[in-house]
Amino acid sequence: MTNEELWQSALNEIELSISKANFITWLKGTRIISNTEGKIVISVPNGFAKEWLENKYNAYILKALRNIQPDIKSATCLIATPKEEYLPRKESMMDAIIAPQKNDSRIEKKNFTVNIENNLNPKYTFENFIIGGNNELAHAACVAVSQNLGKIYNPLFIYGGVGLGKTHLIQSIGNKILEKNPAFKVKYITSERFTSNLIDALQNQKINEFKEYYQKMDILIIDDIQFISGKEKTQEEFFHIFNYLYQLNKQIVLSSDRPPKSIQILEERLRSRFEGGMIADVSSPDLETRLAILRKKVADEELEISEDALLFVATNIKNNIRELEGALNRLIVSSQLTGAEITVAFAKNQLSELISSGIKKGITPKHIIKAVSAFYDIDQNDLVLKNRKKEIVRPRQVAMYLLRSEIDFSYPGIGEKLGGRDHTTAIHAFEKISKNLLTDAKLNEEIAQIKNQLYKLD
Amino acid sequence: MKLICTQDNFKKAITNSERIVSRQNTLPILNNILLEASKGYLKITATNLEIGIEIKIGAKIEKEGRITVPAKLLGNFSSNLTEGENMDIEATDQNLKIKNGSTKAMIKGFSAEDFPLIPQKNTEKALGIAITQLKDIFSKILISVAHNEARQELTGVNVTFGEKELLFASTDGFRLSEYVLKLNEGSVNRERYSELMEKTKNIIIPTNTLLELNRIISNNFEDGEVGIFIEEGQIFFEVREIKLVSRLINGKYPEYKHIMPQNYKTTITGERKVLQNALKIAGVFVNNKSNEVVLKIDAGENKIIIDTKSAEVGENSTEINFKAQGESQEIVFNLKYLLEGINVVTTNSLALSANSDSSPVAIRELDTKTGEPLNNFTYIIMPIKN
Predict the structure, then answer these.
(1) Would you call B247 and A47 a contact, using CB atoms and an 8 Å cutoff?
(2) A300 and B173 in contact by Cβ < 8 A?
(3) Which residue of B has its CA nearest to A22?
(4) Per CB distance under 8 Å, which residues of A are interface residues toward B?
(5) Do A269 and A294 have their domain in common?
(6) What is the pTM (predicted TM-score) of this model?
(7) Residue B307 above 90 pLDDT?
């Protein structure tokens, strides 16, 4: 039997007689380094483990070893350097210092490390947030909150679609506050992390510590709060933490992809609290804002990209800022690789895939009408004919909405397609559905399902 | 356990020890502090299994014994007590009763049986270092330590044993600090020190340990000496009634001596404050990402021009008069690294020496009398590649 096997079987036995926490704390990283005539020497990582094993666990260890090899006489410990487990480094890596690279944006980005304690990413600041009509109110509210913690808008609730800058805004609040006074206790967490931490705490019976931890905060920022929908225990604990902080005038900031009243399965008492402060939305940026975002990014990276090319990107990538930045990054990287200048033609070529995925290729009005009628189980002709039955009107409006949103069909064209209706009817339908989407969860789901269907049709 | 001690001593000891107790740990007992009463003193012990601390305070012991109580709780309680009043402390069963002036408390504790044993030293003192000197070393060395865990050995301070001196070094891969401490013969135990030199050339002390030691000496002591005991895998510090033990970092510290230039083509000298201010102004205009600042050294005119530029906010240029010897240079630095090195200089004047725009640059303190650079502290920084 080798030393390793001996120690492994001994460990298996010791594990049964002591608690898991003790086992991990004291016996992790130990091994037998020599066994001469029954005298065992165990290597341990530090002095604490040596003291403990020799003085407290010696009996367990000896017993376990003797069960396997009866002739073991003694076991002593030695603080030892563990074997080099990692791969040997290349010589050049052994140099103590190296020159920082000039302006390599890909490397520099790594310098933004997320703070472990408060989870804030320092790259999100108000200074580098581009304000446009779509986010003016939300931005103003966030700035006001950062200047007047817990006093004016509490809670602050920011909602809007993906990639529109919610996270940027709410993290900026935290960063601003820390910049002004590092002593403030700030916590940024996603509701999903919050839930999983809560579950851990419940499992380890540390729920009180969990609560205490959050109740210490001067400002608590929870991202994507809609995910606590349906999680009753999380909602309950969050409710208590919320109340506690709120009573003490501590700031709470929440973000979500929809307004409080559209979050399904949310307890009424939470919903009303969310609505009790300030609610602000961020929507898709207009062309000017998109262009400003691109310009800012180009200036940050100190790059040269023609104004036309930027305009091209801004015009074609509409929905979401994250996609916009992704598109620009793609241009930058491929131009660095090929050494080509970024022109409109270059951008067109590089982004063809992205752009066509925005307005999906090959989807025609026919497809949409077919998908809608199939989904609501009505005849395609009913959509076109004059018919004001409720069960037909709504699908017709949905169809009009999708014609506009998915393939950017003109309003008069939409009217034409659906039985020669007036373009104002189409505008009304589009606006009505857009509005209802913000509040009506069922409609949201329906549209999502139709879209799924649509893109499978081909 | 039953005893009486002064509130001042008790509070100080709890504050000093409570800090190292880790908040998150697999072993719940590690959140506790151990109180032990034996002949003539009360011993307070805390550990996070990397560092252990033991503090003895004088006390009138009526009954010996031991107990552990939650560190945070005891810390919060003792820091707010009435000053000048004595503390009556008594442990019965698993409860710690404390009476201080008009306030009484009962803290629920745990049996001391499960509290980790703090390693005790088995060797003689190797050397002692004056507290004033240690503070100076820490302020200059700890700035360059790596925080990134990727290279474990760089997260500590390397100490090399020389015949006549100790070399402290730290680096995070972008800059390097080295401090040469001349050994004071009166404080060195030659026998033990020679033994050490034979066995190991150097040790790596975890930064947290030194930060803790620095905090303890800064908060409590003006003068005196810290006794240092070095053994296999661990190090002990003793300063009066406080004992600190820590693990050492395993690993090979990178060779760094060959990076430090022997000769310099250009050396500029001048007032630290002037350069510091110019760089702080430059910092307003620096590009947040690259942090670049350009130093143009005009040797003929005896001046430096400091330029920063940011596409976002604008640009800045400052001209300062510095004595320059040797060739003119134009070097690009990371402003943060440059300024951090200058900030720790304690003399009024400093020297900045360079060879080219792509080789290591040194910052040193200047001897006020001779006007020559001092060699006990060297801060090496790599220019940004163009």
Answers:
(1) yes
(2) no
(3) B27
(4) 21-22, 24-25, 45-52, 55-56, 78-82, 94-103, 105, 108, 111, 299-302
(5) no
(6) 0.60
(7) yes
- Summarize the confidence of residues A317-344 as an average pLDDT: 81
Q: Say if the ipTM goes beyond 0.85.
A: no
Q: Which helix (DSSP H) or strand (DSSP E) does residue A187 occupy? A: strand A186-190
Pick the residue from chain A with its C-alpha nearest to B383: A99
Confidence of residue A163 (pLDDT cuts 50, 70, 90): confident
Nearest Cβ partner for B382 among A46, A100, A302: A100
Tokens 């064209």 sit at which residue? A413
Instruction: With CB atoms and an 8 Å threshold, state whether A97 touches B334.
Output: no
Contacts of B380 in chain A (CB under 8 A): 97
CA end-to-end span of chain B = 69
Provide the pLDDT for residue A89: 41
Cβ separation A105–B233 shorter than 8 A: no
In one-letter notation, the amino acid at residue B57 is I
DSSP tag of B361: E
Q: Are A364 and A407 in contact (CB under 8 A)?
A: yes
In order of their start, the domains of chain B are 2-114 (3.10.150.10), 127-257 (3.10.150.10), 260-381 (3.10.150.10)
Q: How close B360 gets to chain A, by Cα (Å)?
A: 8
Residue A118 within a domain: no
Give A221-231 pLDDT, tens digit per residue.
Answer: 999 988 888 88
Least Cα separation, residue A98 to chain B (angstroms): 6
Tokens 């230039």 label which residue? B261
Give yes or no for residue A47 having a pLDDT over 70: yes
Does the CB of B189 have a partner CB in chain A at under 8 Å? no
Residues 6+ apart with CB under 8 A from A148: none
Name residues 139-158 of chain B within 8 A of A (Cβ).
none
Which residues constitute the domain of residue A57?
3-79
- Interchain CB distance below 8 Å, A97 and B290: no
Pair (A147, A254) in one structural domain: yes
Q: Measure the CA dihedral B78/B81/B85/B86, to 10°.
A: -20
Cα distance from N-terminal residue to C-terminal residue, chain A: 66
Distance set, CA B30 to CA A50, B37, B249 (Å): 17, 20, 21
On chain A, the residues whose CB falls within 8 A of the CB of B50 are 46
Which of A50, A80, A99 is the closest to B385 by Cβ? A99
Strand partners, B156: B206
User: Packing angle between helix A344-358 and helix A321-338, nearest 10 degrees?
Assistant: 140
* pLDDT over 50 at A84, yes or no: no
| Domain assignment present for A445 | yes
Tokens 């305009």 belong to residue: A311
Mean pLDDT value across residues A416-439: 87
Whole-angstrom Cα distance, residue A266 to residue A276? 15
Per the listing, tokens 């990371």 go with: B334
B292–A102 CB contact, under 8 Å: yes
A105 → closest Cβ in B259, B289, B384: B289
Distance in angstroms (rounded) separating the CA atoms of residues B386 and B377: 28
Nearest to A108 among B256, B290, B312 (CB): B290
* Whole-number Å distance between alpha carbons of B47 and B117: 9
pLDDT (tens digit per residue) in B125-180: 999 999 999 999 999 999 999 887 777 888 999 999 999 999 999 998 889 999 99
C-beta atoms of A300 and B289 within 8 A: yes
Q: Are residues A238 and A323 in the same domain?
A: no
Extract the tokens encoding B295.
Answer: 């130093």
What is the DSSP annotation of B174-229?
SEEEEEEEE--GGGB-HHHHHHHHHH-SEEEEEHHHHHHHHHHHHHH-SS-EEEEE
Q: A234, A261, A282: which is the final residue of a domain?
A: A282
Helices B71-78, B7-18: crossing angle, 10 deg rounding: 140
